[in-house]
Design brief:
Elements: E1 13-17, H1 21-33, E2 37-41, H2 44-52, E3 59-63, H3 71-82, E4 86-90, H4 95-104, E5 109-111, H5 116-164, H6 168-182, H7 186-198
Parallel strand pairs: 1-2, 1-3, 3-4, 4-5
Helix pairs in contact: 5-6, 5-7, 6-7
């Protein structure tokens, strides 16, 4: 599921996840004062519940070390299933922890304690980067769909050639004529042709 960019008529929607209630409350208040819409969770499990209820944030800020599933598990969930970009927060700036966060796909890594004046530029930069990555992902999906469509059309053309003993161009034109007559996409007609061939007749 692809997360759309935040519309220009609403503030960016942030999901803030930290098991320290004081940090969570302070950061959430400060981010709201900056104009963001902020949703809070005290654990990866609480964040998962929010996502399951329909929350679709534009960006998540995740504490790395939390009881339970933890920030890195949630990061993987956000990246692979929700396609939600995220920034990692941690009191630890050691190379190992930073490397783990980087491998998880974090767009930024911020070391606590955090000054709100430092957070906003990081969030804005990450949001912009997320928009660019989203565009790239959508482009890849469109290209893949086009490639899949071409592949199906080629297979259907080959099947039509064999079935009607036609040259390739004539078989292709037959498929295209059928698509026009039915006012459907050529790829859909081709897919139907392939499926009909693969489904054994009773």
């Amino acid at each position: 599921m692809t997360t759309p960019p935040a519309p220009s008529d609403r503030p960016a929607r942030l999901l803030l996840v930290d098991d320290d209630r004081l940090i969570l409350g302070t950061l959430a208040q400060g981010l709201r004062h900056m104009g963001y819409e902020v949703h809070q969770a005290e654990s990866a499990e609480d964040a998962e519940a929010l996502l399951s209820s329909g929350l679709r944030p534009d960006m998540a800020l995740l504490d790395v070390h939390m009881p339970g599933a933890g920030g890195l598990w949630l990061a993987q969930r956000l990246r692979e299933i929700e396609h939600v970009p995220f920034v990692m927060l941690s009191a630890y700036g050691d190379a190992s922890t930073v490397a783990q966060a980087t491998r998880s796909g974090a767009l930024a890594y911020l070391v606590k304690p955090l000054a709100l004046t430092q957070i906003q530029p990081a969030i804005e930069t990450a949001l912009q980067r997320a928009l660019e990555l989203g565009e790239l992902r959508r482009t890849r999906e469109q290209l893949q769909a086009a490639l899949d469509g071409d592949r199906v059309i080629n297979v259907a053309t080959g099947l039509t050639m064999a079935q009607h003993k036609l040259p390739r161009q004539r078989a292709f034109e037959l498929l295209r004529a059928a698509a026009r007559a039915q006012r459907r996409k050529l790829a859909d007609v081709a897919q139907e042709t392939v499926q009909a061939y693969e489904t054994p007749s009773v």
